Amino acid sequence: MTTAVIDPATLGTALPPSPKSKKLKGEDVGIPVRKMGLAYGDEMPTFWVGGNAFLTLLFSSFSANLPQGEDQFVHSVRLFQDKITDPVLKAQVRAFIGQEAHHSREHDALNEAMVKRGYRLDRIDRRMKNMNQWIRKHQSLAQQLAATVCGEHITALMADYALRDGELLAMTAEPTRTTWAWHSIEELEHKGVAFDVYDHLVGDRKLLHRTMRVLLVIFLAHNILDALLMMPRSGQMTNGKMWRDAFGLLRRMVNFSKSDYRDFFKPDYHPWQHDCRATLKEARLKYLNEGAV
Question: Does residue 257 fall inside a structural domain?
Fold first, then answer.
């Protein structure tokens, strides 16, 4: 008996029944777990986002947050894993954990390549590790899961921009273009998982909305400040064109995403109300040479 792929756009409300003849895998629920293992050698440009030092360091700062950040995402979902009874959501959670684990490993390798070039991403990683320890000691299980839902929404907005607009990935050099395209694809594939766990087992939308407002400020402040602190090493501080190009792209990203960000605060919101199946199909073929998943 074969198992049809579960359409993720149908999830989050009435979850469909699943066959009992086999344990559902990630590919059965639209969330395949992929391993990349890319090499970030000397041939990788130091300023891999279109030669733009600030954009490269901004996304490097983001990358430096990911191994520990995604470890916390996985931790917060695992806190509720034993309470999940639906087999489809169980399979989604397992696949979410698998995808996030590979993201952490891949970004560890990319971060190490930038550290070797003299950019202290290791300091950001240590700060995130300390932050995780504080969060696990002082925040409730619901608060931790709410932060994961909000973090997943922010990353899904960035992924949607990267894949649908195409400008950012087009100007990104390999192998980092493949890294960010793959990561963006998987962020969209699993964008509803943490939300569904939260909605089924916590359900406090007010907590979710409060958390989002705080987390967005922290996310922007940390990444921008970290990039600025690394800029003197780049030798590009007085490059006016670099700054104009960088903030022009960031402005376009914000304008592209702000409507979907606001939708998060609607009382009936679910991530798959923003249907990205067509985007995923095109991106899988273009960047990963995959057909329909």
Answer: yes
Q: Is 27 part of a structural domain of the chain?
A: no
Say if 88 falls within a structural domain: yes
Locate 119 and state its tokens. 């950019």
Summarize pLDDT for 61-104 with one digit per residue, the tens.
Answer: 999 999 999 999 999 999 999 999 999 999 999 999 999 999 99
**How far, in Å, are 34, 49, 178 from residue 59 at the CA level?**
22, 9, 14
Q: What is the mean pLDDT of the chain?
A: 93
**Tally of structural domains, the chain:** 1
Give me the domain span that covers residue 147: 47-288
Confidence band for 114, pLDDT divided at 50, 70 and 90: very high
Distance CA 235, CA 143 (A): 41
Q: What is the DSSP string of 105-136?
A: HHHHHHHHHHHHTT--HHHHHHHHHHHHHHHH
